[in-house]
Amino acid sequence: MAFDVRPADVFDDVATLLSPKDRTKQSCWCLSYRLPYPERRAMTGQDQAEYVAGLCARTPAPGVVAYDGEMPVGWAGVAPRAELHAFTHGRVIPTVDDLPVWSVWCFKVRGGHRKQGIAHALLDGAVAFARESGAPALEGYPVDTGDRRVDAISAFVGTRRMFEAAGFTKAADTDSTRGEFPRVLMRLDLR
Q1: 150-167 burial string, b = 16+ CB within 10 Å, else e?
Q2: Is the entire prediction scored with pTM above 0.85?
Q3: Contact between 73 and 110 (Cβ < 8 Å)
Q4: How deeply is 38 buried, as exposed, middle or buried, from its count of CB atoms within 10 A (0-12, 13-18, 19+)?
Q5: By the 8 A CB rule, do 103 and 83 touch?
Q6: Phi, psi for 150 (deg, rounded to 5)
Q7: Residue 1: pLDDT above 80?
Q8: 154: which residues sit within 8 A by CB, 6+ positions away?
């Protein structure tokens, strides 16, 4: 099945995928890697929604959305690494070099649409989006599951196998884990 992956510049479509049912409640909104925890924690659910709406209105968009027809069915957070507080100030994901790389750090597939290849389509779309935006390289920080199955909660960062299938290669180990799995830094040269 083919999915159309586009920049995440339509807030209502992003909200369909990321917002809680009650938008006054706090949720991740894919901001946990983007903002420092105290800043994110101080935001109300409405503040978070408005912040993401602002991201969707700017260039570059804050990620990509996969569509089945006109229905949004998947999200991937994609942005310059320099915009992501967790990667610029964190200690568990290393910086490989001073190249101004982009990062893809989150995948979310709408319930009822899983196991259809949407995450793979999102990663391909993230690569195209980063390339079209002038990124010299794209990094991801997936779990390395070996041959073991991974639960959906741990898999939101992607899997090493998924990144390898898209042409990424391992650039470094990390000190990060998700669930019981180590995360690795995968990179794809876009030049």
Answers
A1: beeebbbbbbbebbeebe
A2: yes
A3: yes
A4: exposed
A5: no
A6: -120, 145
A7: no
A8: 143, 178, 179, 180, 181
